[in-house]
Amino acid sequence: MKLLIDFLPIALFFAAFKLWGIYVATAVAIVATVAQIAYLRLRHGRVEPMQWMSLGVIVLFGGATLLAQSETFIKWKPTVLYWLMGGALLVGQVLLRKNFIRTLMGSQITLPDAAWRQLNWAWTGFFAVMGVLNLWVAHRFDTDTWVSFKLFGGIGLMLAFVVAQGLYLSRFIKDGEGSSPHAKDAQP
């Protein structure tokens, strides 16, 4: 259910774009994201910091798109969001000496410190590349292609990355009889 709620604004943006164009789609994305945050707040009593950041970015860049009647702003929105997320992971690791991926996932999985660091760097790099890729598609192709990439390409690449990450992490997962034989290899 959470996955559906997370991707609902993107799916609604895509549908509205196909039916009514970029400006209506942008307004729909803003309203859908506000509704998403309100629902999460009412249902769970709390909203993740990344979701607040996403709300701020869509309101800022979506609002600029509507006010200026320029689709350039909404095309920059995914890049800004990717780079903010990657930047937060980078600052956390380098300056604060805190691994935010571990903070998010540490209660669900036990990994050696080296694996947490590699995971953090992998996500940092993924977000950096996705930001550049979004800009490349936004400026090299028409808006229709960019919108399709935003939905299918972005989600597809994210899914492929998560599957690859899962395969990497599987060697560290403890089974019912103890830890994986490779878990000791990754210790610092």
Q: Layout of SSEs?
A:
Layout lengths: L1 H19 L1 H23 L4 H20 L3 H23 L5 H6 L7 H28 L2 H28 L18
Helix pairs in contact: 1-2, 1-7, 2-3, 3-4, 4-6, 6-7
Question: Please, could you describe this protein's structure?
Answer:
This protein has 188 residues and is an all-alpha fold. It has one domain. Helix 3 packs antiparallel against helix 4. The longest helix has 28 residues.
Give the structure's gist in a few sentences:
By secondary structure, the chain is mainly α.
Uncertain runs: 176-188
How far is it from the N-terminal to the C-terminal residue, by CA? 37 Å
Strand content: under 5%
Count of helices? Answer: 7
- Total beta-strand segments: 0
Q: What would the average pLDDT be, to the nearest integer?
A: 91
Q: Portion of residues in helices?
A: over 70%
Order of helices and strands: HHHHHHH
Assembly state:
single chain
Q: What is the makeup of the main sheet?
A: none
Shape: globular
Key descriptive features of the protein:
single chain; 188 residues; mainly alpha; 78% helix; globular; disordered C terminus
